Amino acid sequence: MSNSLTYFSTVEEVSSTSDEDLREGFGFLSPDTVVNYVMELRKKLRFTEESKEAAESEVGRLRRLVKDKEASTSAVPNLTYTGYSQEPGSSNQASNSLDNNKINNLHFVKLLPGFEIQATFLFKKGTEKFNLNLMSEKDSQKFYTFHLDFRPYPLGNVIVMNTNPAKSWEREIRAELPQLVNGRMYNVTVLCENKQFRVKINDKYIQSTFPYRYPLQDVAVIKLNHGSLGNKWVSLTWQPTKATQNPPSSAEAGNSKEAASCDSPPINNSINLNTKLQPGTKIYARAFFKKGTKKFTINLLKNTGFYIFHLDFRPYPHGNVIVMNTNPSKSWEKEIRAELPSLKDGEIMDVVIECGKDKFKVKVNGNYIGNVFPYRYPLGDVKMLSVAHGSNGNKWIALDYHE
Q1: Which of 18, 90, 193, 318 is most buried by a 10 A CB count?
Q2: Rg of the chain in Å (alpha carbons)
C-alpha cells in the first residue's frame, strides 16, 4: 500500500498535487470520506496559515496509518471503517432515491469479449467528475486499460475515455454526456465487444466507441471513483451478455458462479417518500436474480400493511408468474397475473413501473408484461416504497423514481 504514496513523501507535495492524483494516492482506503477529508486538510495547508501546523500533523498521521494494512479504524476521526463509505451528516431527504449504499472502490474481476459491465450511480449536482476504470493485473493501481470519466456541467458535460499504461495518459476519445438531474440514478453499461468498448447510459449509446489498446483479458480490477458531494456508485455487476456474436467458450467463461458476479450490497427494505407519485412517474428497480428464491417483491404502500400496489415475482418452479394485487390493511383482494420471463441464475433483472392516468404498466428487461393493473386506491396516497429481497442471495440492488 505504501508504494502508491511514494510521491506524497512531503507535506508540500500533498499541498500541491492535483485532485485526481490525490484521489489516486489515498483512494485505495475505500471510503471516499477519507479522500474528502484529506482534500479538506490540503485546503488548510494551502489557504489557512494558522491551522497549517494542525493540518501537517494530520497529514503525517494519515501517512503512518496507510502503511498499516491491518488498520481497523478509519483515518477520519470518529468514523468507523466498514468497507463502505459512511458520510457523516448525510441524509436521503435531498434525493428521491432509496438510501442505497455506496459500494466499494475496488472489485476483482476476470473479463472476456462478450461480457458486459453494468453500474448505477446516484448523481449529485456539484461533483466535478466520477469514473469507472478497468485496471490491468500488471499494475492494478496505475495501469488503466480503460478509463471512463464523467464530467458533468459546468465542467464540460463530457465523457472522456482514455488509457494509461502506468506511464502517462494517452489520446482521449470524447463523447457528449447527457444532462444529469440532481438526485436521480443513472444506469451505465459497458459492452466488451470483440475489438472495442461500447457504452450506454440508460440504454442509449453514447456517440463514440473506444477500441482496445491493451488486452481485455489482462483486466484484473474494476476501480470506481465516486466523486464528491454525495455523488456515488451504488451498484456494479459483470456477466456475459445474453447474446454475443462470438460468445466465449465454456472453457474460457468458467462455471456460472464465476461468469455472473455482483458485489453490490442489497438496498434498504423500505423508505418514506418525500414527494407524491403522480401520473407520468416511473419507478426503476434492478434485482440480482439467484436460482432457488421463491419470490421477491416491490410494494407501493400507503402505510405499513396498506398495499396500494403489490408486485410479486415468483420464478420457476414456483409458477414463473408475476402476481399483482392490493391489500387495504384487511385482506388480499383480486389478483391479476402475468407471465414472468425466464430468468437465469446470476442474471440482472431490470423493472420499470409506469404510473399512468388510471393504471400501472410494468416492464421487465425492456418488455411490457402481459397485463396492466388498474388503480384501486389513489396513486397520490403512496407514502412508502418497500422491497422483499427473496432468498439464496437474490437481492434488489437499486430503486429510484422520477417523472
Answers
A1: 193
A2: 23
